Structures are given as structure tokens and as C-alpha cells.
Amino acid sequence: MGFKVLGESRVEKLKKSVGYSYARSGKMKLWMIRATTAVMLWTCLVQLTALGDTWGPMVLKGWPSHDSVSGNALDVKLLPAVPVRVLPPKRVYKSNGYLLISCNGGLNQMRSAICDMVAIARYLNVTLIVPELDKTSFWADPSEFEDIFDVDHFITSLRDEVRILKQLPVRLKKKVELGILHTMPPVSWSDISYYHNHILPLIQRYKVLHLNRTDARLANSGQPDDLQKLRCRVNFSALRFTSQIEELGRRVVNLLRKNGPFLVLHLRYEMDMLAFSGCTQGCNDEEVEELTRMRYAYPWWKEKIINSDLKRKDGLCPLTPEETALALRALDVDPNIQIYIAAGEIYGGDRRIASLASAYPKLVRKETLLGPDDLKFFQNHSSQMAALDYLVSLESDIFVPTYDGNMAKVVEGHRRYLGFKKTILLDRKLLVDLIDRYTSNSLSWDEFSSAVKEAHANRMGNPTKRLVIPDRPKEEDYFYANPEECLQLQQPSENEPVNMIQ
Q1: 165, 175, 159, 162: which is closest to 208 by C-alpha?
Q2: 98-101 and 127-129 as β-strands: parallel, antiparallel, unpaired?
Q3: Is the separation of the CB atoms in 303 and 228 below 8 Å?
């Protein structure tokens, strides 16, 4: 009996348990259905709301009556489409090794060298490591590549031509850190055959080759057209400045544009240039001595004893501020034009700039247009400051360099590429002769002005053939000043800049 009772008891409990399970299962199913329905309804509402300002509100606020619907209400306002960046397809090739490069010089000297090295890496089928910038030159700028240029854009925009990495693979990087590396400077002004015949075998042998000087290592002319065009592509497209530099450059240009047209004067009358060149026109004895001491302090400035007067008469000195003022006046440049000085600190300060400021009172600099907070991240970073001046120079109505250094040449070529924008290329040798004759009363002002205008009529950045001297590459025209192979399809800009020459 006890057993039977126990059995019945278990049966009853089992029945109750099964009933409870069915009831619980039913409740769970009902809860799941409700939850799923709620999620689906919420998703639909979100999707409808995302359609814009018309359909979403209609659902959420109630469908309007027929009379209340206006034509404007049915205009669906879509958010502006964000352009999808289409990357070029990767170029598939078997890499012959890795190329490390250490640039030397200032910003534009390094810029042109980077263009050369990308072209060389492409033609040797090697992998290029993001270039190392010069930190030991006169300016001692600690900036890395990514501090000045948009490194990701640089890599991705060229991926259909050459493989570029931010650093070596780990195994090779460790070997380099241990000093197991072949380092050398390539021969200056070499054509591409030198790199195929002499540099490529070294890369294949060592797997990693370090080129420790890169300026002026590829010949200006006589190279394959596709190599020349790749140099241009790197210069005009791949080497984009960082967003911070680009934005500040736009701000400076906008501030200038608010007050009308502007001229950029690359006044290369800075202490380092005067010490290096030995040009001391207008300097007092104390300044001459200071510049001489600086020249001897830098062992890689090989020329020590310099006759400043002879060098000036040969047109090898940057124009002084006083000479520049006379040249601009002789060319009838409007005295009311804004002149943005793209340069570092002018040697001699206000005393030397006074005559230029008197002739052209609307002189401005980045330091006068921007506040200290805007420039605080650029202090002690000369290459970043130069990048800002570069951007403003490209956008100017007229660009006037007073010396044919690297920035003057590269900006000149870039302005040609942008539609032969007006660039006044001053003939310094002729100018100093005319200036000396005018200041000694051998020429009247009208005679002086006429001679200056006549000499510069065809020196305004207009299309011209690049001078080629096969046996003397240093004396021929610089590729980056006139990249003729890249300008064949370019035409002078339809929107000519405002004429500020009276």
C-alpha cells in the first residue's frame, strides 16, 4: 500500500509538473512574440526616420490631411553624399628588396628628392620605406615625415606604382638596428640606367639598401617620359601636407583674399642664406663678421673665402630688400597690393625692411595674420613653417622669388602645372647692374624702369622650353622648376589673375 501510495503521489506530482511546464512554455512563447514584435516595430520606425525630414515625421507625428500637404513637404531632403574614396589597385610585382632613404636639406630640397626616390623605387621594383627627413641641417627641425605630409595618402595614392611601407618587416628591422646595413650616397645627376646597373644589384645582394643623400641624384632630362610623369604625380598629388597644415594655409589665404589680390614675395634675405652664399650687400662690419663666423662653423658649407661684390655682380646673391623694392617699382607693381613675405626672419630686421615697407606698406607675414596660438605647434619646426608658406605661394596672384633656391624652383614648377600662374623670375645679374647704374645717376628712373620691364617681359612663368645641357647637368634648367613633360596637356588658366602691374 505504501508503495502504491508513493507511486500515485509521484504520478500526481508528474502531472502537475507537466501542466506547469506547458503553462510556463506558453508564457515564454507569448513573451518572445511580444518582444520580437516590439523590436521589429522599433526598427521600422528608425528606418523611416532615417529617410529624411519628411517621411519620418509623417509616421511619428501622424499622416497629414490631403489639404495640408504642400509641394515643399514632399521634397525629400537627403544628406550630402560623402564621396567614396576609390583607391587605385595595388600593383602586383615581386619586390627585389627594400630601399631606405635619408633626405638632406630643407623642405623643398627634400620634397624633390622624395619624388626622385619614388620614381627610382618604381623602376627598380623594390619596396620603399617612408623617407626619413633631415634633422641635422642648419634648421635642426625634428619633424618626421608624418608631421609634414599625409603619410597614409602618400602610401595609398601610389599603391598602383610602388609598394611603400612605414617601416621594415621585423626581421630586417632588427638587422638594421644591429648595424647590419649597406649605406651609400648615390652619384649626383645620374640617369635611370645608373640605378639599374649599379644600385639594383646592391639591393638584390643586401636585401636592404640605405641611400643617405638624396638631393639632385636623378638627372633633370633624358629620362623616360613615364618616369618624368611619375615624378610629377608624386610632387603634385601624392605629397599632400597634413590636414593641420592645409587648414592653416586655407585660413591665411582666406584672410588675404578678404582684402583683395596679393603677391607672395619669397624674400630669401635670411641669415643662413647670407652666411652660406657670402653675400653681404648692405651689411655693416659687425654683420659681415657674424655671417663669416657662421659660414666657418658649418663644415659642409665648403666655400669659405668669398668675394661678395663679385658674386653679386654675377647674379649669385639673393636680392636685398632695397633692391627688391626698386625692382617691383620698376615693374609697376601696384603699391597698394598686399605683399605676403614667405620667409624666415629677415636679417637686419626692421632696419633692412624699411625701404620695402615704405614702397609697399601692406606687408604681411604669417605671424601678423595669425595669432600665437595658431602657430604654437609650428614653432621650432622650420619645415612645417615652410610648408605653410608653400601653400600660400601656390595660391597667390603673383609669386616673386628673390633667389633661385629650392623653394623658388619647386613653387615655380608647381604654378606652371596649375596653369602657368604668374611668376616673376627676376634676372638678378641684369638687375644689380641696372640698379647700380640708376643709384649712381647713370640712368634716369624712366630709363631704368623701361629696361627692367623689357628684360622681364618673357620671365613671367609663361610656357617655355627647359634648357638642356647634357654634359653640364648642374647648369641646365631644373626639372622641378619646369616639368615640361607633365605640362603638354596644360593650357594657360582661363581665369587670369588680377593684373597688379600698372
Answers
A1: 175
A2: parallel
A3: no
Residues 6 or more apart whose CB falls under 8 angstroms from that of 50 comprise: 56
DSSP helix/strand/coil, 339: strand
Distances (CA, A) of 39 to 27, 64, 157, 229, 442: 18, 26, 44, 57, 94
Do residues 500 and 333 lie in contact, with contact meaning Cβ atoms separated by under 8 Å?
Answer: yes
Grid cell in block for residue 302: 665648403
pLDDT band at 136 (very low <50, low <70, confident <90, very high): confident
In 3-state terms the chain splits into helix, strand, coil percentages (rounded to 5) of: 50, 10, 40
Residue-wise pLDDT for 258-295, tens only, equals: 999 999 999 999 999 999 999 999 999 999 999 999 99
CA separation for the pair 184, 111 (Å, rounded): 20
Which uninterrupted H or E stretch holds 264?
Answer: strand 262-266
- The whole-angstrom separation of Cα 238 and Cα 118 is 10
* Cα distance between residue 95 and residue 442, in whole Å: 66
Task: Decide: pTM greater than 0.85.
Answer: no
Q: Are 496 and 472 in contact (CB under 8 A)?
A: no
The neighbour count for residue 134, using CB atoms within 10 Å, is 24
Q: What is the pLDDT of residues 372-428, one digit of tens each?
A: 999 888 888 999 999 999 999 999 999 999 999 999 999 999 999 999 999 999 999
Whole-angstrom distance, CA of residue 183 vs CA of residue 234: 25
How do strand 208-211 and strand 262-266 relate by DSSP bridges? Answer: unpaired
Phi and psi at 165, nearest 5°, equal -120, 155
- Per DSSP, the three-state class of 333 is strand
For the cut 50, the answer to whether the pLDDT of residue 64 exceeds it is no
Residue with cell 661684390: 309
